[in-house]
Amino acid sequence: MSNRTHDMPAGRGTDRAQRRLRVAVRPLAVLFSAGALLVLPPSPIPVSEASAPAKSTADAERHNAERRDAERHNAERHDAAKWQGGWATSIQPPGRGLFPNWSQQGFHQQTLRQVIRVSTGGTGARFKLSNRYGTSALKVAGATVGRTDRGAAVRKGTSRPLTFDEQGAVTIPVGGEVFTDALSLRVRALESLTVTLYLAEPTGPATYHMSASATSYRALGDHRPNESGEAFTETSASWYYLSDVEIQSKAHGRRNGVVAFGDSITDGFASTIDGDNRYPDELAERFVRQGRPRSVLNHGISGNMITFGTPGTGESGVDRFAKDVLAEPEVKTVIVLEGINDIGLGGTPGGQIPDVSVEQLITAHRNVIRQAHAKGLKVIGATLVPFKGAGYYTERGETKRDALNEWIRTSRAYDAVIDLDHTLADPTDPDRLTPAYDSGDHLHPSDAGYHAMAEAIDIDAL
């Protein structure tokens, strides 16, 4: 439904492997809404425990590495005004997930190729790799970036090596993250880039983002120079290690970035694979159509909850907000859309997530608002969309959704409100998604629904 005239590679998403991914992912939306993801973790992580001091040696090493990286990263960002977020994703611990992925086994003597699309353009780029949830040091033997062609192919003559402190390889410690050196590269808003990593030594389980709604590619051996993509015969619908792309912009110093924060509905679950139809993608396209591209970053995680975290669905929204939102450069506004999984999954018979009250949800939302305001961000609350007919729908859950939405609309806790409930509701049954906006699982919007969400946002207020 979105305008695909802006640097969308011709034919991307049309090969047989990508069609197979699309067929595989869509039915799983039904399993998702039934809470299938949450049978995987051993136990939920309450907000109050998610930030508790690490007790094991591995946890202590991860905590120390994160602290050292944060200190170094802050020191290096004395010129942060030169950079804006071009693309981002929220990373998760390795796990089985909703569909086959490579996170648990990791990589060995393999080349990993991933495609991302930046929301804003500039004259340089740098790429962040994360080993936040790794169990051993991550050794990257080499990396390249090029302009995306069809599938795994890179446009001829555009592949460029990436370096780390002027070296071709890098070792990222457990819990660590590292940026590549800045690369002089003119990038246009909504242009797709292909990042290739060669992982020669066993990586162990991989830090990843489960539901990418995009195709990643894998090949045996070192295929960094391979621009045709023919060697990349394996595919996945997840992203691995790559967590941020920052763009150097002529408009440096302009703090106008937007972060979309939430769960699978922000993540774009059930949207067309490789279609870039997530609502933050559609929002970025609106800015481009008006001739004023802005940084729009997607920090949604499918299955995520604002009050509880699990290994399968990431840390709670409260606990990951600082890492995922406040760490991004030049952000002005954050849009918060979260809570439906807390309502739907909490207290289900045989489930592992305790019942979550409306008061707990409001407390969590207030926590996120305080975190944003403490950093000078404008924070906009989005009402939870209808979910009648979804696998975890109950009348009691609907009562909670109505109560939380009423608080979002009327409490004035948020600086502004986007009423997505109203935007997507079926006029004949407001507790349901409008059929044209329903992906089929009665929880996640269709491509048309994600487009409508972006259109409902007053971009002048962001």
What's a concise summary of this model?
The chain has helices spanning 16-33, 47-50, 57-76, 264-267, 279-289, 317-326, 340-345, 358-374, 395-410, 420-424, 447-455; strands at 45-46, 83-88, 110-117, 122-130, 138-140, 142-147, 160-162, 170-172, 177-179, 183-187, 192-199, 208-209, 216-220, 234-236, 239-240, 242-248, 257-262, 296-300, 308-309, 331-337, 378-382, 416-418, 425-426, 429-433.
Give the SSE layout.
Elements: H1 16-33, E1 45-46, H2 47-50, H3 57-76, E2 83-88, E3 110-117, E4 122-130, E5 138-140, E6 142-147, E7 160-162, E8 170-172, E9 177-179, E10 183-187, E11 192-199, E12 208-209, E13 216-220, E14 234-236, E15 239-240, E16 242-248, E17 257-262, H4 264-267, H5 279-289, E18 296-300, E19 308-309, H6 317-326, E20 331-337, H7 340-345, H8 358-374, E21 378-382, H9 395-410, E22 416-418, H10 420-424, E23 425-426, E24 429-433, H11 447-455
Helix pairs in contact: 5-11, 6-8
State the oligomer.
single chain
The fourth-level CATH homologous superfamily is SGNH hydrolase
Question: Under the CATH scheme, which architecture would be assigned?
Answer: 3-Layer(aba) Sandwich
Radius of gyration using CA atoms only: 21 Å
Distance from first to last alpha carbon: 23 Å
The chain-level structural class is alpha+beta
β content, as a range?
15-25%
Helix percentage range: 25-40%
Q: Total number of helical segments?
A: 11
Principal-axes shape call: globular
